Amino acid sequence: MRRKVIAGNWKMNKTPNETKKFIEELKALVANTENEVIICVPFIDLATAIEMTKDTNIKVGAQNMHFKANGAYTGEISANMLTEIGTEYVILGHSERRQYYNETDETVNLKLKVAFENGLKPIVCVGESLKQREDGVTKNVITTQTRLALDGLTNELVEKTVIAYEPIWAIGTGKTASNEDANDAIKTIREEIANIYGNETAEKVIIQYGGSVKSSNAKELFEMSDIDGGLVGGASLEPQEFSKIVNYDK
Ligand code: 13P
Questions:
Q1: Index of the ligand 1 atom closest to the CA of residue 174
Q2: How far away, in angstroms, is 72 Cα from ligand 1 center?
Q3: Which of 9, 77, 144, 162 is the most buried (most CB within 10 A)?
Q4: CA-CA distance, 221 to 230, in Å (whole number)?
Q5: What are phi and psi of 6, to 5 degrees?
Q6: 228 contacts 190 by C-beta, under 8 angstroms
Q7: Residues with CB under 6 A from ligand 1
Q8: Average pLDDT, consecutive stretches of 10 residues, N- to C-terminus, the chain (250 residues)
Q9: Ligand 1 atom showing the smallest separation from residue 91 Cα
């Protein structure tokens, strides 16, 4: 049985002081869950989040990183900078980074390899736009993104990659994919992984759903056969609401 992994993606929200307050409240609310709980915070909040989550079951992730170890890349952060302060996870290839910051399948693949080389656990985002869905190319888009992201990885590393299926039209819009559509897309991603890396590996990969997940729809989504938890944006910014999503099975 795959575990459920529920990650908050704060995007560009919360200062270090707000991070401290959030975790003080969240930690008791999620202390009894068996699900994996992750908060992916802005770079500036990482040190505070890591300190505040010591001796808790909450794990901390970043939202991006560069694929180079160091150099003249103004404003960027490398994998070893993240691991030195104790960051465990990193989101790679979020649609907002693909859309606004020139993230490509190629850079996602480079970053994925560098994340593993540095001991970070990656959460790789894939998903189609509204136009692509309307044009009927969803399957092609998500299988291509998945294949190119994982290209060159060993089976062992593929099994350790968390994938988040996030249809772009469902992000921040209040429109959630139907349970069946989300589950079908995730099955498609799993089949693509099975075609390349075999069934045994594909069955182990955690594939989350993301896009307007909230406490009122988390249970029905996460109980679907192939949805292994969620990557949660807006609804992860408030401890009570986020804890209800984490505790969807209580
Ligand atoms: P929302 O939950 O705000 O729709 O954001 C989803 C997302 O992009 C998480 O990475």
A1: 4
A2: 31
A3: 9
A4: 9
A5: -120, 115
A6: no
A7: 9, 94, 166, 171-172, 210-213, 231-235
A8: 96 98 98 98 98 98 98 98 98 98 98 98 97 96 98 98 97 89 97 98 98 97 97 98 98
A9: 10
What is the predicted pLDDT for the residue at 177? 86
Position 223 scores a pLDDT of: 97
Q: Is 203 a catalytic residue?
A: no
Separation CA 64–CA 173 (nearest Å): 22
Distance CA(167)–CA(127), nearest Å, equals 4
| pLDDT of the residue at 130 | 93
Which residue has the least CA distance to atom 1 on ligand 1? 233
Give the whole-angstrom CA distance, residue 245 versus residue 184.
Answer: 22
Q: Residue written as tokens 């509204």?
A: 130
Rounded Cα distance, 29 and 241, in Å: 10
Q: Is 66 one of the catalytic residues?
A: no
pLDDT of 236: 98
- Cα separation, 65 vs 21, in Å, equals 26
Q: Which of 72, 83, 68, 152 is nearest to 114 (CA)?
A: 68
Residue with CA closest to ligand 1 atom 9: 233
| Given the residues 96, 103, 128, 166, the one annotated as active site | 166
pTM score of the predicted model = 0.97
